[in-house]
Write a structure and sequence with these properties.
Layout (H helix, E strand, L loop, with lengths): L7 E6 L2 E6 L2 E2 L9 E2 L2 H12 L11 H13 L3 H13 L5 E2 L4 H22 L6 E2 L8 H12 L3 H14 L2 H8 L5 H8 L1 H10 L3 H23 L3
Parallel strand pairs: 5-6
Antiparallel strand pairs: 1-2, 2-3, 2-4
Helix pairs in contact: 2-6, 3-5, 3-6, 6-7, 6-10, 8-10
């Protein structure tokens, strides 16, 4: 797509804030005006449109994409989104451990057990762990507790978690990040414990490094989006 505007600003519209491109409201793909309830988010969206190059793609506008997802998808399918995210918790990455070698098992325990403990203390979720990849049945009440935790989020928060949780493969890490218990880079490194251990012992993989950087960037943008939606 080619840039068609020169200036970007924001205006208050009741309790919402609208981004203007050359004095015209920014519209979502469906034609509806993008209006958000957070002034900081509106300003940040205006800034990313202001910084867009002459030829741009949606990837240059991640905050806009998240806001659009919140309004056009999450708001319409909230219960289903919560079910999908809760399902990650029922099969959380942190519950599936290597059965060897011993140093990797120890590394997983050192880095992952603390976050299972956080989930237990913060949300009353007692997750079981197993060695290998065969599915494990978590306690029946776990899904309800995860759903209750997710239901506390607005559609904007759920849109951000909708990126973070699949990227990390862990609802526990996603909630911990959303609640400020860890940062995006630490969350990404924790999710990629196995890969990082393998690289430290057997050498680096350029494709894996590129993929991890992309995941970390997506998680970081989503964490920023969450922060912008708090004020």
């Amino acid at each position: 797509m080619k840039r068609f505007w020169t200036t970007t600003t924001t205006i208050a519209d009741g309790e919402h804030f609208t981004v203007l491109l050359d004095s015209k409201p920014l519209k979502l793909p469906g034609g509806r005006v993008l209006s958000v309830p957070y002034p900081a988010l509106a300003e940040a969206i205006a800034a990313e449109w202001g910084a867009a190059p002459k030829e741009f793609s949606p990837d240059d506008l991640p905050l806009t994409q998240l806001a659009s997802t919140a309004q056009d998808r999450v708001a319409l399918h909230r219960a289903n989104i919560i079910r999908q995210l809760a399902a990650y918790g029922m099969n959380d990455l942190l519950c599936y451990r290597a059965d060897g070698p011993a140093p990797l098992v120890a590394q997983q325990s050192r880095l992952w057990d603390q976050w299972l403990g956080w989930a237990r203390n913060r949300h009353g979720v007692e997750l079981l762990i197993t060695a290998g990849v065969l599915p494990i049945n978590q306690p029946a009440e776990t899904a309800a507790r995860f759903s209750a935790a997710l239901d506390a989020y607005t559609e904007y928060g759920l849109a951000a978690l909708g990126v973070i949780v699949p990227a990390l493969g862990s609802l526990v890490l996603g909630l911990a990040l959303a609640e400020g218990a860890l940062d995006a880079q630490t969350a990404s490194d924790t999710a990629f414990t196995d890969e990082l251990w393998q690289e430290a012992n057997w050498g680096q993989d350029k494709e894996a490094i590129t993929r991890r950087r992309r995941v970390a960037a997506d998680v970081a943008v989503s964490q920023r989006f969450l922060a912008l939606c708090r004020g």
